[in-house]
Structure to design on (346 residues):
């Protein structure tokens, strides 16, 4: 019978490393996906993904079983992403090289297309969406990535971001409106009378 | 039903939550009613939906195959370091505490306990019915008994 995340985490608190390995297997893709879509850099996302799980293990004693493990895990990942984004704002030249390198990565996506034109078009669209998300303020970026790419519920996003559910509703709505404006400017979406 | 008609300015901020089904059922119902009558809000919902779909163009990624092993190796190293650190601390504490404990016990035995005993016996009031005991040797005892017989 499959143990729940909370049961595994309680075993980790008692030093059970095998239980922790199971949690890593369950969530490494989700955490990697979230961090990558938040910071836009695959290699740095790998580092932060590892850091997330190391922090989870080190802070296992602080975990309370009344909190869902997934929310707690994404809270830790979101904090690391915030630190990374703030670091990049303070050191833009450091991050520029990494971004240029990461934009060259062609084969990191799960879905691939057999046709070269389709592949090119898909990569172009992906790049435009990536840039649109990068234009968003920090909280909007985190919230929209958690919702669109990880399908977290609003209460889970609220816990991860440390705000209320009402605030999450507002943040996600504004994020979608801002993304729409940017995507219309990039030509990915058709404009409407801009009465958003 | 006048009480159940939502206005556009009430509905618009809730459209994303409506799309994500993150509202109570009764509110979703009211918004649906509003959208049937309001083409502008209905259009906005459609746009938000298209935006949401457009984001899927930036595909999913997976963690590299070796990530779990890397994480577990770091965890094992961390666990081993923590264990070693705990053992070192235990040893340091024992190294300091053992002689300290011995010193405290010794001091208590030779200084504190006699002081307490001395203060207890000195301050104790003398009673008239108190019996004092003197220890005498066997030879003295036989002399006393002999005197008594004679």
């Amino acid at each position: 019978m499959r143990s729940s995340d909370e049961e595994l985490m309680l075993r980790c608190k008692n030093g059970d490393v095998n239980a922790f390995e199971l949690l890593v297997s369950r969530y490494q893709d989700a955490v990697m996906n979230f961090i990558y879509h938040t910071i836009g850099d695959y290699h740095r996302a790998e580092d932060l993904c590892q850091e997330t799980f190391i922090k989870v293990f080190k802070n296992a004693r602080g975990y309370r079983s009344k909190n869902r493990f997934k929310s707690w895990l994404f809270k830790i990942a979101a904090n690391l992403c915030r630190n990374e984004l703030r670091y990049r704002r303070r050191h833009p030249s450091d991050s520029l090289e990494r971004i240029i390198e990461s934009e060259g990565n062609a084969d990191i996506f799960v879905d691939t297309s057999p046709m070269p034109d389709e592949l090119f078009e898909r990569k172009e669209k992906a790049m435009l969406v990536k840039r649109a998300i990068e234009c968003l303020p920090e909280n909007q970026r985190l919230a929209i990535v958690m919702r669109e790419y990880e399908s977290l519920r609003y209460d889970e996003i609220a816990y991860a971001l440390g705000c209320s559910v009402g605030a999450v509703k507002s943040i996600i709505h504004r994020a979608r409106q801002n993304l729409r404006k940017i995507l219309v400017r990039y030509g990915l979406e058709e404009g409407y009378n801009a009465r958003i | 039903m006048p009480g159940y008609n939502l206005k556009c300015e009430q509905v618009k901020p809730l459209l994303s939550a409506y799309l994500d089904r993150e509202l109570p059922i009764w509110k979703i119902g009211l918004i649906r009613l509003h959208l049937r009558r309001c083409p502008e809000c209905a259009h906005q919902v459609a746009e938000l939906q298209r935006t949401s779909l457009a984001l899927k163009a930036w595909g999913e990624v997976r963690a590299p195959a070796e990530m779990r092993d890397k994480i577990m190796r770091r965890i094992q190293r961390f666990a081993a370091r923590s264990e070693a650190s705990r053992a070192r601390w235990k040893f340091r504490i024992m190294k300091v505490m053992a002689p300290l404990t011995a010193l405290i016990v010794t001091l208590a035995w030779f200084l504190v306990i006699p002081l307490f005993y001395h203060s207890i016996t000195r301050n104790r009031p003398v009673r008239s019915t108190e019996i004092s005991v003197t220890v005498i040797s066997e030879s003295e005892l036989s002399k006393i008994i002999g005197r008594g017989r004679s």
